[in-house]
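hey m, so remember when u said the tokens were messed up on ur end? i reran from scratch. heres the input so u can diff it against urs
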Amino acid sequence: MTLRSTLKAFTRLSAGVALGLGLYGAVALEAAPAYAQAALAPQVQTEAAPAIRPAEGAGPRLWVIRDADSTVYLFGTVHVLKPETGWATPRFQAAFDASDELWLEFADVDDTAGVMAVMQRHGLSPDRPLSSVLNAEQIARVDAAARTLGASAAQLEPMRPWMVAITLAMAPLAKAGFDPQSGVELTLARLARAEGKTIRGFETPDKQVGLIAGMSEEAQIQLLDATLDDFDNAAAELNQMVAAWAAGDIETLDAVMVEKIKDKSPEAYDVMLTRRNADWADQIEELLKGSGTAFIAVGAGHLAGEDSVQAMLAARGVTVEEVRD
């Protein structure tokens, strides 16, 4: 099997991830989220505006920043969801309808081929095979997980540890019924196109993938170990996170997602959350210097915890308020 066909086979098997945290052992899909979700999702076949099921309870949280001539909404997402998950609320709909622009982690969330090429460029290194950086016990654990997908550790040999972690993290989610086509970003992108809204991104796929690929080998292996630790419970943990997100329970999201990343891999937390949140806060401040209304939708992990985007903006004197129905 060629490197390209191996990668395609695994991405088909893991084409059901749910966002954000599921990628790094039920936690990283939120942290590193959008690029992985896009790479695994099948190409969007229609631009028809999708119907969003209404939230059954409180619904996901929404924040707003206002100045004299600008309004910026902040909405936390899950990159992949089960089709039956409802999350639309009157406050979401009113904010989205009022917005001129949609801001995502990166704009081309349905450019499967482009993101796949980026992941291959950063994630394959045949000259440094996986078995040369993992110990025998780790290789055995990778092999056991891979065999549940009908593969083996040998087929993952050309991949860097971070890519193996993402690949293995997503497969259990597909089996649990999570569908990338139901993810919030793809849904919002279709809605925005149907309504003629401009779509912008805080990053490019190359920048986002490069962040995790640029982590130290030690940190990448920590992520892989965490993924293997959570492999059997990934779907259950993601179900818990999605339920918390859909209920607006930021405290649980912080505990089971953000703090978990911080505890298991401090470097990943710094690279994938803290630094990116600071960069996005910079861009939001620039956005506020202009005028108009923008709707920002990023992984919910970025809007939870002490290092959230809202917290960073508040520390700079920017007033961020929660929107309530």
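this time it looks ok to me. The chain is about 50% helix and 10% strand. if urs says something different then somethings off w ur setup not the seq
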